[in-house]
Every structure is written in C-alpha cells, then in structure tokens.
Amino acid sequence: MSEGKNLDRIPKEGLPPDEILRAIHAFREDDIPWREGKTWSLMYHANDAHESLLKDASEAYFSSNYLNPLAFKGLKRMEQEVVGMVREMLHGDSQVCGTMTSGGTESLLLALYTYREWARKVKPNGHHPEVVVPSTIHPAHDKAAHLFGLKLRKARVDEGQAAVPGEMEKLINKNTILICASAPSYPHGILDPIREIADLAQRHKLPMHVDSCIGGFMLPWVEALGYPIPPWDFR
After folding, report:
1. CA atoms within 13 A on the CB side of 211
2. Shortest CA distance to 172 belongs to which of 124, 141, 204, 136?
3. Which among 166, 184, 179 is positioned nearest to 229, based on CA atoms?
4. 88 pLDDT higher than 80
5. Considering only CA atoms, which of 150, 80, 69 is closest in space to residue 115?
6. Could you tell me which residues come within 8 angstroms of residue 59 by beta carbon, excluding any fewer than 6 positions away?
7. How far apart are alpha carbons 129 and 151 in whole angstroms?
8. What's this model's pTM, rounded to 2 decimal places?
9. pLDDT tens-digit map of 147-187
C-alpha cells in the first residue's frame, strides 16, 4: 500500500501500521465531502456524536459473525428487537416477521428471490415468471430480475411520476408472480397509490411488495407530526 503508486500485487514485505493508516487517510482526500451534504441518498450524517456512536457500536461487534446467530446471541437479540420495533411502527400483527440486511439492494434481492421461490411452488408451470412494476421502480429490481431469471414489465406513470393502477393491470397475465410499488419512489420521492395497487393484487390473487427503502422509514414520523400520509404499510 502506497500513497502515490497503485499496487497490483501483494508486496513482498508488509508496511508498519502507522504507514498503512497514513495511506488509507490519504486515499480519502479526493472523496466527495459528504459531511457537507454533497452525497444525497449515498451517505447520511446527523452529527459527530451520532457518527461516534455508530463507530463504537460497530467496533463492539467488529469480530462477530452473524453467519451463526446461535453463536452470537447478542446480534440475534438486536435483530429481533429492531424487527419488532419496525413491525409496530408499520402496524404489523404478530404474523409479521423480518430480517436485517446490509441495505436496500440486498433487501430487494432477497424479496424477489423469495417471491420467485414461492411462485415455483404454487405455479409449477410458470416457466417465464414476470413482475409488474411502475416505470419509476428502484433499479435494484432490474438487478434482481437479471440474477433470478425474472422479467420486469414496467407500466407507465402519470405526470406526477406516480404509478397508475390501471396501466399496471394491463400488464398482468398468467406469468405474473408479483406486483411491486414504491413508498416513496427513488429518486422522485413520490408515494404510489399503495391502497389501490393492493386492491389490484388481491383481485388477481397476487402478492404485493412495497419498496420503501428510500424515505419509507421516515413516513411513520411524518404521519405522527400530523401530515396526511395515505396508508402504505401493513394496514
């Protein structure tokens, strides 16, 4: 590791710790100043005290491995408690369960993978599974479709960039295994008409996935402050 020259092979001799750290800090000099709010949706910075807390919490479990939750019961407990808190915030009942992921992309990958596996059991003759989405759906859906052999059918949205249930319904056919919508969409910040799309999914006996990665966790607090938020969660 060197501040000036890129390495393309493992060096024959290691470097002192202080030199390694000096090089690492030097690498950051050309990074965008995210503490100044220059990286919308990439980095979130509340204040220095909050950042320090996150670092301390990460360091406490730095050498833990949640590959085996029975070996690291503290991590398992934290996950269960977070899932329980979110379930309550989103008006879920006792049947609602969940898991923590590394972020929005992994969450969507796991969701679409799960729906595909579900469809293979309930629709064994569905060899060409399709997912109906509005055209404003998060691009991680495209990643998931590519990885898991799904076809995304994208419906047009209205002038305000919100999904149109009628346009989505036109794309439903015998191969459809899932309907998706956003609350809110990325990067528009628009809530799709979740209630109407949920009714559509029920009429066609299809599961529905609500992607609320960007901003969705804020919606319960926005509603608690008295702003009118159409129902979008487990209600």
Report:
1. 30
2. 204
3. 184
4. yes
5. 150
6. none
7. 6
8. 0.87
9. 999 999 999 999 999 999 999 999 999 999 999 999 999 88
